């Protein structure tokens, strides 16, 4: 029991020593920030902002410190000779804490992946998705004024040309290999006349927003359907970033899959949780290559996808119609 108590005391001393070392290191960072990077802060609250940033702790750290205090109080209550202050020999290990912290000894590239996956909005994937959402999707697709929404423009197109769209939403493609051609080429697709442009004032500029239209070259239940279709432009920009030496970095290249998945997941969250866009957009993430290694035909993939949706919807509508008819006949019979 004495050996276990001695072990607990040593753990407390070590953690208290590391806490003191950590406070000293954070104080050093405060000085660096204040004198070297002072232009990064507003003058009126510079010191306070630096102190808040330097001495912010995550929940896990606060829990550990609280547990240390509780255990230390229990030990002191059991043995009045115990105290919080470590013996002088422990302070000799303070430079060891500084060495471990400043060298980031526990850091690896997997920490980049874990950072990207967290929900803080500081990573490039979240920034790309947020900029795309606020600067384009949320602005150009909802029906802000009469005739400007994507659904209204599709319905106007259908009436004007006597055609039918597979969905009254903008279909946005997100490819696994990032590259998106300026025109989708497939035996299953052919480009048609674009939708009527929508005009919005953005940052003092009256901008035109245009959405392309494609026609399936193969019928679904004897009808040729249309799509408002485009690729996610930030993903193409990301592809270009990776292929230009001026902007490419080893870390971005290694984390490109993580960035892509975070972009897709975060964009889905924004689109489908915002009331004005949840019914206006279909996000489709797809692999550029099939399981057998063959190149994915975008048109064939889209045709298969929407054929299944359309046939399922028609089957559901037929079943519902039959059910209503039977219910009506039963009610007449009862009468």
From TrEMBL:
<dbReference type="GO" id="GO:0000045">
    <property type="term" value="P:autophagosome assembly"/>
</dbReference>
<dbReference type="GO" id="GO:0061709">
    <property type="term" value="P:reticulophagy"/>
</dbReference>
<dbReference type="InterPro" id="IPR055432">
    <property type="entry name" value="STING_LBD"/>
</dbReference>
<dbReference type="GO" id="GO:0005789">
    <property type="term" value="C:endoplasmic reticulum membrane"/>
</dbReference>
<dbReference type="InterPro" id="IPR055434">
    <property type="entry name" value="STING_TM"/>
</dbReference>
<dbReference type="Pfam" id="PF15009">
    <property type="entry name" value="STING_LBD"/>
</dbReference>
<feature type="domain" description="STING ligand-binding">
    <location>
        <begin position="123"/>
        <end position="307"/>
    </location>
</feature>
<dbReference type="GO" id="GO:0032481">
    <property type="term" value="P:positive regulation of type I interferon production"/>
</dbReference>
<dbReference type="GO" id="GO:0045087">
    <property type="term" value="P:innate immune response"/>
</dbReference>
<dbReference type="GO" id="GO:0035438">
    <property type="term" value="F:cyclic-di-GMP binding"/>
</dbReference>
<feature type="transmembrane region" description="Helical">
    <location>
        <begin position="12"/>
        <end position="35"/>
    </location>
</feature>
<feature type="transmembrane region" description="Helical">
    <location>
        <begin position="88"/>
        <end position="106"/>
    </location>
</feature>
<dbReference type="GO" id="GO:0016239">
    <property type="term" value="P:positive regulation of macroautophagy"/>
</dbReference>
<dbReference type="GO" id="GO:0005776">
    <property type="term" value="C:autophagosome"/>
</dbReference>
<feature type="transmembrane region" description="Helical">
    <location>
        <begin position="55"/>
        <end position="76"/>
    </location>
</feature>
<dbReference type="GO" id="GO:0061507">
    <property type="term" value="F:2',3'-cyclic GMP-AMP binding"/>
</dbReference>
<dbReference type="GO" id="GO:0002218">
    <property type="term" value="P:activation of innate immune response"/>
</dbReference>
<protein>
    <submittedName>
        <fullName>(Mediterranean fruit fly) hypothetical protein</fullName>
    </submittedName>
</protein>
<keyword id="KW-1133">Transmembrane helix</keyword>
<keyword id="KW-0812">Transmembrane</keyword>
<dbReference type="InterPro" id="IPR038623">
    <property type="entry name" value="STING_C_sf"/>
</dbReference>
<feature type="domain" description="STING transmembrane">
    <location>
        <begin position="9"/>
        <end position="121"/>
    </location>
</feature>
<dbReference type="InterPro" id="IPR029158">
    <property type="entry name" value="STING"/>
</dbReference>
<keyword id="KW-0472">Membrane</keyword>
<dbReference type="Pfam" id="PF23417">
    <property type="entry name" value="STING_TM"/>
</dbReference>
């Amino acid at each position: 029991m004495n050996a276990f108590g001695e072990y607990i005391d040593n753990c407390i001393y070590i953690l208290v020593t590391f806490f003191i070392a950590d406070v000293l290191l954070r104080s050093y960072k405060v000085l660096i920030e204040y004198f070297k990077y002072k232009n990064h802060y507003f003058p009126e609250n510079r010191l306070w902002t630096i102190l808040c940033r330097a001495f912010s702790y995550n929940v896990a750290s606060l829990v550990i410190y609280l547990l240390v205090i509780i255990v230390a109080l229990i030990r002191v209550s059991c043995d009045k000779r115990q105290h919080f202050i470590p013996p002088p020999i422990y302070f000799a290990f303070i430079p060891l804490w500084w060495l471990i912290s400043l060298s980031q000894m526990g850091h690896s590239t997997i920490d980049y992946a874990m950072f990207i996956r967290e929900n803080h909005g500081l990573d490039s994937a979240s920034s790309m998705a947020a900029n795309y959402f606020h600067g384009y999707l949320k602005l150009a697709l909802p029906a802000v004024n009469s005739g400007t929404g994507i659904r209204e423009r599709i319905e106007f197109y259908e009436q004007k040309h006597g055609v039918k769209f597979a969905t009254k939403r903008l279909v946005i493609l997100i490819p696994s290999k990032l590259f998106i051609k300026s025109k989708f080429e497939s035996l299953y697709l052919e480009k048609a006349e674009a939708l009527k442009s929508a005009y919005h004032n953005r940052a003092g500029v009256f901008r035109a927003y245009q959405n392309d239209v494609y026609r399936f070259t193969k019928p679904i239940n004897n009808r040729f359907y249309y799509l408002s279709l485009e690729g996610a432009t930030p993903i193409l920009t990301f592809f270009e970033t990776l292929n230009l030496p001026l902007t490419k970095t080893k870390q971005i290249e290694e984390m490109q899959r993580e960035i892509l998945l975070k972009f897709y997941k975060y964009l889905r969250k924004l689109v489908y949780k915002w009331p004005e866009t949840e019914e206006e957009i279909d996000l489709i993430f797809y692999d550029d290559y099939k399981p057998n290694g063959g190149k994915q035909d975008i048109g064939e993939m889209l045709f298969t996808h929407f054929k299944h949706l359309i046939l399922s919807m028609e089957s559901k509508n037929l079943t519902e119609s039959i059910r209503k008819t039977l219910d009506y006949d039963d009610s007449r019979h009862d009468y």
